[in-house]
Hints:
By secondary structure, the protein is mostly helical. The protein has 4 helices and 2 strands; from the N terminus they run H-H-H-H-E-E. The chain has a two-stranded antiparallel sheet.
Amino acid sequence: MPRRRSRSDQSLTMSDIAFWAALAFAGTWWAVPQVELWMMSAEERAAIESSITYSGCNQVRELGKDPIYAGQPGYRTTMDGDGDGIACEPIY
């Protein structure tokens, strides 16, 4: 006959709670800018992106403005090497 789990074995531990809380926070942190971006029209996004122009990623990094996400001032597809919506991302 299989051993029945005790009540303490079935309850969430603090590490379980911390894991799920961190996962929820990370998901929210990632989703909020994405939702704002999806809600913009193409014209709004283009106006914001073209409101600031940088000569390139070196200038962006010197000014401490990196990375630049699609929809943010200064974003250009020519500065987004892999097309993921993040320009001037750090190189590791």
